[in-house]
Amino acid sequence: MSKRFDIDAMESQRLTLQAILDGQKTQAQRNKLGQFATPTALARDILAYAKDMLPTDLPVRFLDPAIGTGAFYSALLKVFPKSSIEAAQGFEIDRHYGLPASDLWDGTGLELSLADFTTQDVRQRFNLLICNPPYVRHHHMANEEKARLQHRNQLACGTKFGGLAGLYCYFLGLSHAWLAPGAISGWLIPSEFMDVNYGQAVKRYLLERVTLLHIHRFDPTDVQFADALVSSAIVWFRNEQPPANHAVEFSFGGSMRAPKLSKMLPAAELAKEKKWTRFPAADVREKSTLPVIADFFKIKRGLATGDNGYFILNAETIAARELPLECFRPILPSPRYVSGEEITADDAGLPRLDKRLFLLDPRLPEREIEERYPSLWAYLEEGKQKGLHERYLCRHRSLWYSQENRPPAPIVCTYLGRGDSKSGRPFRFILNHSQATVANVYLAMYPTPILAHALAEKPGLIRVIWEALNQISPDQLLGEGRVYGGGLHKLEPKELANVPVPEIAALVPNLPVRQSDMIFEAAE
Predict the structure, then answer these.
(1) Could you report the per-residue pLDDT of 442-499, keeping only the tens digit for each?
(2) What is the model's pTM?
């Protein structure tokens, strides 16, 4: 028998409880488990939107597979008449949140199971599923766990997700078996799936197995979860096969009912477009035959050192410790220390920058280093005492202290940026005349054979090409990249490679039709 209660008072208690429980965990612990609570106002907006999609006389059977302290259940009780709620089920794997939530909602009609939803067999079906699933990245999941989830997911929804899929994808797929015919499902998830490779399987499920109704993407400058660096979307679908000529609403900014932008797009056309975050601002792209950056440059991420503080030193530190400079090579500092868009060099090839840094990269075995460079050997011993040689990157090298081969690149591009930067350009192309390599805050751009040949005949051409790269509109670059919370944009090698550059094609004589076989590193 359900007790009488004041839902606003209970929501106030829940928020107090949430703050206490969150405070008992570090942010790093919550990040690893993907635990980010849904704000009350947003939860109520989502339930109010769901109410409009359900028949008014339909008894509500509610499910939240990752209920936490019950933000969506609280919103359900606020938005729907209590008499219309026939059943409510929640799952919570973390007893730290689940036990207090169970006590809080006791007697209100909620059946809260302290269990891992991904291991549960279907007990009953529900006509309203709302969830903010845990955002656990794939590298926090063991291979055995991924294999289990992939198997169960394929049984549940007929779709196999790739190894880079986050845990939230499996929650979405596994929930399919719990949905009644015609059920409404709403998912508050990272918008990352709309652009990345692993998201292709998620989008295939949304287009083929259910009727995708609406994807509302929140403005990334308005982070929904203050402690999670992701941009969020709410994905709505109905558990039924999509009708012929079906169209999907894409909206952006504002609220679901009053977005800044909105557009209806044919579902058949969505299958042709890999990057859904371009909607609703843009239309589906036609397949382009224009030359792209990959036709002129092989693009590689800058190198990952394993510990920048240890492997990258300034000249003063090297001199003070009497380390052999010949065992170092120059490396560019972070982009924030590069004020201009062109880096000149001195006669030794060192960059003319106020902040000069050097990368430790000896190619000698330790025994020889001990004999020839005792001070460097002592420095390596310090690194070993700190356990650096046992870190993932270091222990997978032939010499734990040697770096991967990353020659200086004539042009480098910043890897991360914000659309609201002073220049209005989230990414910078920097002309590099120095012999400095780059860390993974940059993308290194190496001329392909056809461009290298043209540059050998006309060395000044690199400047003209660099100027052409800087004329690429921010919208073109943002259209290929991806966005995170707070308006932070990221550009992977493959994404930069796909940017059309017909202006550069006009500068390079005898360009063959698309060098699409040129090698570049794939985006995750």
Answers:
(1) 999 999 998 999 999 998 999 999 999 999 988 788 767 666 655 677 888 988 998 9
(2) 0.71
- Sheet of strand 261-266: strand arrangement: 110-113, 85-91, 60-64, 126-131, 179-190, 232-238, 211-217, 247-252, 261-266
Question: CA Rg, the chain, in Å?
Answer: 27
Give tens-digit pLDDT for 354-370. 999 999 999 999 999 99
Kind plus residue range of the DSSP H or E element containing 328: strand 328-331
Say what the pLDDT of residue 314 is: 97
Beta bridge partners of 130: 186
Helix (H, G, I), strand (E, B) or coil at 396: coil
Q: What is the DSSP string of 254-305?
A: S-SSS-SEEEEEEHHHHTT-S-GGGTTTSPPPPPP-S-BGGGTEEEEEPBP-
SS3 call for 418: strand
Burial of 272-287, coded b for 16+ CB within 10 Å and e otherwise, reads ebbbbbbbbeeeeeee
What is the C-alpha to C-alpha distance for residues 393 and 387, in angstroms, rounded to an integer? 12
Contact of 178 with 63, CB cutoff 8 Å: yes
Q: How many residues does the chain have?
A: 524
Give the distance from CA 286 to its chain's centroid: 26
458/224 Cα distance (integer angstroms): 51
Which pLDDT band, with edges at 50, 70 and 90, does 425 fall under?
confident
Of 220, 199, 280, the C-alpha closest to 247 is 280
Partners of residue 184 on adjacent β-strands: 128, 238
**CA 434, CA 106: separation in Å to the nearest integer?**
67
Which residue in 524, 521, 450, 502 sits closest to 293, CA to CA?
502
The tally of CA atoms less than 13 A away on the side-chain side of residue 309 is 4
Residue type, 443: L
**β-pairing verdict for 85-91 and 110-113:** parallel
Burial of 57 (C-beta count, 10 Å sphere; 0-12/13-18/19+) = exposed
- CA 30 – CA 289 distance, rounded (Å): 45
Tokens matching residue 85: 């709620």
E strand or H helix that includes residue 318: helix 315-320
DSSP class of 359? E
In degrees and rounded to multiples of 5, residue 2 shows phi and psi of -75, 140
- DSSP secondary structure letter of residue 349: S
Tokens coding 382: 């310090």
CA–centroid distance for 356 within its chain: 31
Query: Which region, left, alpha or beta, applies to residue 487 given φ > 0 means left and ψ of -120 to 50 means alpha?
Result: left
What secondary structure does DSSP assign to 48-107, as a single string?
Answer: HHHHHHS-TTSPEEEEETT-TTTHHHHHHHHHS-GGGEEEEEEE-S-HHHHHHHHHHTTT
